[in-house]
Amino acid sequence: MANSPPFEIAIAGAGMGGLAAALALAKAGHTNITVYEMASDLGFVGAGIQLAPNMARILDRLGCWKQIADEAVQCYETSIREGSTNKELGHVALDYVEKTYGYPHMVGHRSSLAGSIYDGCKKESDKITFKFRSTISDIQFSPRPSFQLTPRDSEPYRVECDILLGCDGVKSNTRVAMLEELNETASVVDTGQAAYRIMLTRDQMKHDPELLALIDTDTVTRWIGHRRHIIAYPISNKTIYNISTAQPDDNFAEAPTASYTTKGSKSTMIQVYGDYCPMIHRMLDLVPEGEVCEWKLRVHAPLSTWVHGSMALVGDACHPTLPHLAQGAAQAIEDAAVLGVTLAPSRIADRRPETINKALKVYESVRKSRAEALVELAAENGRSMHLGEGKAKEERDKVFAALKTGKGPVPDKWADADVQRMIYGFDCVTEAEKACREEGLVAKLDA
Ligand SMILES: Cc1cc2nc3c(=O)[nH]c(=O)nc-3n(C[C@H](O)[C@H](O)[C@H](O)COP(=O)(O)OP(=O)(O)OC[C@H]3O[C@@H](n4cnc5c(N)ncnc54)[C@H](O)[C@@H]3O)c2cc1C
Fold it and tell me: Whose C-alpha lies nearest to ligand 1, atom 37?
């Protein structure tokens, strides 16, 4: 490909998946990447995010992990408690994670994660162009991918490209277009769940010693109860306490598919957690009126494929995942890293659609079953954390109690050693390189 023009790569969406895909492709040697984002800027809601070692490993290779880690908080333990009493059900030390997987389990601010990947992209500004306030629609797949681009302040026009990556999130237009083309549908699975996301400052918490102790820990705490839980941890050098919840989505019952976020009511939120302990009430009461946001948690049935022609789906567009395993963004970033391997210019011999499709199919082969297994595991973890009174809950709590006397499985799956081995121990880049060799996508370096 030495003398041929560079591949034109279009990326729909500048979320975690789109940003990481742009950076991974630029690092792989692509020089003509455009990211189209309908929002005016990165626009990340104020919220924290767990930064698992499998995510950290990729971001380190892409050169942006240090900046994120400098602002993040390392978690040394997780405590799972009964929401109604604050009694500790189980406690798991996480300090071995770094020794075992090379990276610690950290938690951070979404804007720090996205901003650092974006900064990485800006260092590749000769290769990556960002077009904000630009919405993609009317996607066509052949002979080359094309779409209508509607900039917010000017007339729409059509764009053609060699490769289109649909990183446009859970409400993906690119997914809808692909499924229409294939005469398929992706049935929306009603999770019945919604989430509040809240951030409290140290200043807001400092007058309450019990709450101040929470922000000063290195602990991810989950308070569980029937059909609901709260998970919380300190972020931004312990200046902010990040709280995320999951509860029945009663506030969305009228329009579950039209809108996934709504302004939540503080009094409803306090009612929803009415049977939780007084400390949780004091904590939720610190949230200023008008600052409660609620998200509908949405997933859909597995797709038959993530790839059509020279287009591939990435991240929540193809595997929206409940947050109960803290892996959605990590999996979008794994998608991006694998695309950086399979689409490397040194591996694609020419720009024919068949050649590109073959590379995208290798991406799908490395990613689809793994991401879908984690979608299912996250849902299962939610079911287990949300058990009501009865035999199943008694059994779960016995397994939690056994943790105090020695090792055993952890019912909160993200903290279970075997699950962590499966999630953190998987190096998607090594797997992608292996799959490329098996499929004959051999880079000059491999040969
Ligand atoms: C409560 C909650 C907690 C979570 N906690 C964690 C966690 O701790 N760890 C973790 O790894 N994951 C977590 N996740 C999951 C994670 O947030 C998502 O999986 C991840 O952000 C998905 O990234 P994405 O790039 O695929 O999609 P998005 O972040 O949704 O990005 C899609 C982008 O595409 C843009 N877009 C959409 N349509 C168009 C269009 N037509 N044209 C142009 N642009 C378009 C959107 O504006 C958006 O910027 C959590 C999720 C929730 C809801």
Answer: 168
